[in-house]
Amino acid sequence: MEEKYMSQAHELLTNTGVGNMANRTAERMIPLLNALVTGYSIALAKTLGSGAGAMTQILLSEVGEVLSAMIDEILGSKQVSYELENVEELLKNAFLELGIAEDVKIEKDVKDNMRIYKLHIKGSLFAPVHKILIDRGLKEFPLSPEGLLSASIVRRVLRERTGGDTKARVNVNTKLPVDGETLIIEIKEVSRL
């Protein structure tokens, strides 16, 4: 991974922008961040319609490496190497160790020599966002933090693993819970353009 991404991740994790952290509690910050994610998601869905999912590719290109570097820095020695045999552990560590979700189940498949990972996430930190988006009639979550985070990890594995493709790409599709609690994320390796 390039040093600039590690540096950007470190900056985001250490520079909070203000000296007064007393008012920055999880009880205040999480609802605020959920409101922002909700607003961006609704605006994107209204603006781009069914093409809103393409925004995730842009986000992966712009911040995917920084996200996975942030996870590395937070988890430190608990983090495992970015190899194919570690994908499930990498994904579970990101969600469970960071407190983003209470439970993660992962299915793996290969079709046409392309890897597919399907995550079933319960107890997400962003569950209030899911409910509002469902109430607004959305079935997919184009700017899903869970989808972006997991796609950035899978993409990094495909790029950095032994014999990996430094230009590997993935598509991510995040389905909002139909059962009221399970977010489903499907990440597919795609061939290069």
Report what the structure shows.
The protein contains six helices and four strands. With 193 residues, the protein is of the alpha+beta class. The chain has a four-stranded antiparallel beta sheet with strand order 1-2-4-3, with helices on one face. The longest helix has 23 residues, at 26-48. The mean pLDDT is 88. It is globular, with a radius of gyration of 17 Å. It has a single domain (3-13, 22-190), classed as Muramoyl-pentapeptide Carboxypeptidase, domain 2 (2-Layer Sandwich). It starts with a helix and ends with a strand.
Q: What descriptors fit this protein?
A:
globular; Muramoyl-pentapeptide Carboxypeptidase, domain 2; four-stranded antiparallel beta sheet
Any chance you could write out the topology, listing elements then pairs?
Blueprint lengths: L2 H12 L11 H23 L5 H22 L11 H11 L5 E9 L2 E9 L4 H9 L9 H16 L8 E7 L7 E8 L3
Antiparallel strand pairs: 1-2, 2-4, 3-4
Helix pairs in contact: 1-3, 2-5, 3-6, 4-6
What is the average per-residue confidence, as pLDDT, rounded to a whole number?
88
CATH topology: Muramoyl-pentapeptide Carboxypeptidase, domain 2
> Major beta sheet, specifics?
4 strands, antiparallel
The CATH architecture name reads 2-Layer Sandwich
Class inferred from helices and paired strands: alpha+beta
Nearest-angstrom radius of gyration?
17 Å
| CATH class identity | Alpha Beta
Outline type:
globular
Briefly, what is this?
The chain has 193 residues and is an alpha+beta fold.
